[in-house]
Amino acid sequence: MTRKQRRMTIIGGSLAVLALAAALVLNALRDSIVFFSTPTMVAEKHVEPGKRFRLGGLVQPGSLQRGDNLAVTFEVADGNAKLPVAFKGILPDLFREGQGVVAEGALDANGVFKADTVLAKHDETYMPKDVADALKKQGHWKDDYGTQGSGTQASGAATPAATTAQDNPQGAVR
Predict the structure, then answer these.
(1) pLDDT grade for 149, boundaries at 50, 70 and 90
(2) In this predicted structure, what is the pLDDT of residue 146?
(3) What is the pTM for the complete model shown?
(4) Nearest CA to 107 among 169, 31, 164, 50?
(5) DSSP conformational letter for 19
């Protein structure tokens, strides 16, 4: 075997080992790659108590109850299923009923999602593409939601993908 053949064999073997390692990592993380799970997905997967994940959906109107010491309970729904959520802490300023939310935590033995982090959407017109797609797929899309992040609005008119630096001093793309 020549020196060139030996080098090519080592490089080929290294690439094969690297590809196998990447495949094993992606396979192990396949459930964690999803940004959040909806209540329907949680019910279908039969998530066991104690396993951490992100729950996303809409806060059910009329379900928000405030308790003592910043304790809050509410229900997150996706149109087909709903899941009770318990959280102890300060909620985001934009958190309210009927709005999108993503909570991170785990289910307890009673089927209540114990959240340790709650994130609310940042303004009236934005909805994460994943949430909008899930609502469209389930037939619960309303024309007044608007999807500024995907480049369209409820009226169907196209919006610019980014604003100018003058309109948006922070330089963020909307």
Answers:
(1) very low
(2) 47
(3) 0.55
(4) 50
(5) H
